[in-house]
Amino acid sequence: MRILITNDDGINAPGLAVLERIAADLAGPDGEVWVVAPAFEQSGVAHCISYTHPMMIAKLGERRFAAEGSPADCVLAGIHDVMGDARPDLVLSGVNRGNNSAENALYSGTLGGAMEAALQRIPAMALSQYLGPSNFAAPDPFEAAAVHGPALIRKLLAATPRIEDDTDYRVFYNINFPPVLAEAVRGARVVPQGFRRNTRFSVEPHLSPSGRRFLWIKGGEQHVPTLPGTDAAVNLDGYISVTPMRADLTAHDLLDQLKGIE
For binding a divalent metal cation, which residues are annotated in this chain's numbering (predicted)? Predict the structure, then answer.
């Protein structure tokens, strides 16, 4: 298996090293793992692409490249330049430092990389590691992802319907490992995306030493559970969440209701 991996935390992020080990396990001794990751952190860029300016790409080692662009840029670079005519069999993005459950998924560069791979008609998964009191200060905060990731990905690859080949907006998976160490993981749950009520992103103003005013983007409380049976809720209950997603943004539930305005 030929696997392309990327992330949004940058080429030197510890979560990317975890993903390299996961990918090597999946690829096997006869497979290949290719890394094309952002040269600098790209958290929060979602599915951004560098459409109006070029990006520099540098080879750092065998099958290892850094690009001055977003995760989606890196996937495009990997598929259409770095890997040549042999497309990857799978694209993995992550392992993100922090969760991409609930509304975080909409901002996530980690998911942006997986989404671009799906648009390129390649199986793709985004992996994120929820952080909390049980694992934040652990020697390996990514232990749950490292231990449980390979087997879960194999199950998803085996279960993904073959009819996806004829689907315009192909599925990609948002996988979030709970904020616990590996032995405390209670299993995996296939659940929809949730929404953290009464908490959201905001801004916090600060003055620089020169008196200029700057705004920092400020995240909301991450340990607020979503509705029962949705992603952040099961994560906080010790389960891995698996959410199948598509890039189709249509509100299908409203199409019939809005027919009256035509």
Answer: 8-9, 43, 96
A 10 A CB-CB count for 143 gives 20
Q: Is 12 annotated among the ligand-binding residues? A: no
Peptide bond into 95 cis (omega under 30): yes
Q: Which residues of 97-132 are buried (b: 16+ CB within 10 A; e: fewer)?
A: bbbbbbbbbebbbbbbbbbbbbbbebbbbbbbbbbe
pLDDT per residue as tens digits for the range 208-251: 999 999 999 998 899 999 999 999 999 999 999 999 999 999 99
Residue 166 clears pLDDT 90, i.e. is over it = no
Distance, CA of 109 to CA of 43 (rounded, Å):
6
Is 166 labeled as ligand-binding? no
HSE-CB for 33 with a 13 A CA cutoff: 19
How many CB atoms within 10 Å of residue 71?
Answer: 36
* Burial class of residue 199 in the structure, from the number of CB atoms within 10 Å of its CB (0-12 exposed, 13-18 middle, 19+ buried): middle
Reported as a single tens digit per residue, the pLDDT across 15-72 is 999 999 999 999 999 999 999 999 999 999 999 999 999 999 999 999 999 999 999 9
125, 113 Cβ separation under 8 angstroms: no
Give the percent of the chain with pLDDT over 90.
93
**Whole-number Å distance between alpha carbons of 73 and 42:** 11
> Is 9 a known ligand-binding residue?
yes
43 labelled as ligand-binding?
Answer: yes
